[in-house]
Specification:
By secondary structure, the chain is an alpha/beta fold. It has 14 helices and twelve strands. A five-stranded mixed β-sheet has the order 2-7-6-5-4, sandwiched between helices. Helix 2 packs parallel to helix 3. The mean pLDDT is 91.
């Protein structure tokens, strides 16, 4: 529900003679404003606040630096500080704030903080209402696509037109869940506007659903490769590009499929639906009884043998097919002798009762393995 600090600054720069001293606003977003006069009170901040400070209690540049360090530590979005005529931030403070990417602004001693904060509050509340309406519209477009009246008008009133390109991304990072929530997920959420431009987002059950508007799929994929490449605990699925509002639900379904596969079948923390290969077909089958029956027919006897005798023949069979049915490569992967592997493969053929190298049977076994990798939702 936050607003870009750069936008807020543009609304007050000339009217209230407030001046930015850092190189930029550093892509900060603001959720609310606060007046904080003493360092001891900074710990009560929630994050993304723009702080107004009279400067009365500032005793030295060292004190001010410690004050700013605490603001940055508690994720404040920026600082507006009052100065008497002729005074301003010391250069060492400006350089420090540029280094930590923390925006600072100077105001005159007579700047009416109350008026500025009231203006910001109006902007923030209007934006919160807009975001709430867009989130409701997005959920309706996903879950009730046939009811166009519940989302089309909300989208179009806010500049999201029916013939624009839309893509849905679903991500999570449950490894960072804690009693105070998930700060890592909140940080990713705050970065979305700057990564993708025009977006609508909501968080549900620890998953962040993001609707990117007018952003090329290649750009979305590149941005998320960067996030997931840096943090293996972030899992993301990217849907297809929807050519219009009415197809948003299709992009969501495909994003959810890709996201689920990062958790089950495919060993990666980022998947785009376009990259799924055979899983596009497997994941789209909705008949619940097809997969269990197919798996039982293909490898059920082997699974039963493993369970009864505490063997791992299914693991051996999967490794064998993953290595193109090469005894030498499979033996290396399983750390066993080739003769031992050959014995196990012969045993597998007898248990299954058919030739596992016959083309039709090879396809059947591989599809069964893919289905098992999909997890309990499909099997």
């Amino acid at each position: 529900m936050a607003v870009e600090l750069e936008y807020l600054y543009a609304r007050i720069e000339s009217k209230y003679h407030i001046k930015l001293h850092t190189e930029s606003c550093f892509d900060k977003t603001i959720a609310w404003t606060h007046v904080v006069e003493e360092i001891e009170f900074i710990a009560s901040l929630h994050g993304e606040e723009l702080i107004f400070y009279s400067g009365v209690s500032c005793t030295s540049p060292a004190w001010l630096k410690r004050y700013i360090m605490e603001l940055n530590k508690h994720h404040a979005g920026g600082l507006v500080m009052s100065f008497r005529d002729g005074e301003t931030f010391p250069q060492e403070i400006v350089e420090y704030c540029n280094k930590i990417r923390f925006p600072i602004f100077s105001a005159s001693w007579t700047t009416p903080y109350i008026d500025v904060m009231r203006l910001f509050a109006e902007i923030l509340l209007q934006n919160e209402q807009r975001e709430t309406n867009l989130i409701a519209a997005l959920k309706n477009a996903i879950y009730y696509p046939e009811n166009e009246g519940s989302y089309l008008s909300h989208f179009e009133r806010n500049g999201f037109y029916r013939d624009m390109d839309y893509a849905v991304i679903i991500l999570s990072c449950h490894a960072y869940d804690g009693d105070a929530g998930n700060e890592r997920l909140r940080k990713i959420e705050r970065s979305m506007h700057f990564m993708l431009g025009n977006v609508v987002m909501y968080e549900e059950k620890g998953r962040l659903t993001v609707l990117a508007v007018g952003c090329p799929l290649s750009v979305i994929q590149a941005r998320f490769r960067k996030i997931c490449g840096k943090d293996c605990n972030v899992y993301a699925g990217i849907g297809t590009m929807a050519a219009g509002i009415k197809e948003i639900h299709l992009s969501y379904e495909k994003a959810y499929t890709a996201y689920q596969l990062t958790k089950t079948a495919i060993r990666t923390n980022l998947l785009s639906y376009d990259e799924l290969g055979i899983y596009k077909i497997l994941a789209d089958v909705k008949e619940e009884t097809i997969y269990p029956a197919f798996v039982r027919e293909a490898v059920g006897a082997l699974m039963d043998h493993d369970e009864k005798n505490h063997t791992e023949y299914m693991k051996v069979l999967e490794a064998y097919f993953e290595n193109d049915c090469s005894i030498m490569h499979t033996a290396q992967v399983l750390y066993c002798h080739k003769n031992t592997l050959s014995y196990k493969l012969d045993k597998i053929k007898k248990i299954l009762g058919y030739d596992i190298l016959k083309n039709e049977n090879r396809v059947k076994i591989m599809v069964a393995i893919y289905i098992l990798r999909l997890g309990k939702e499909y099997f």
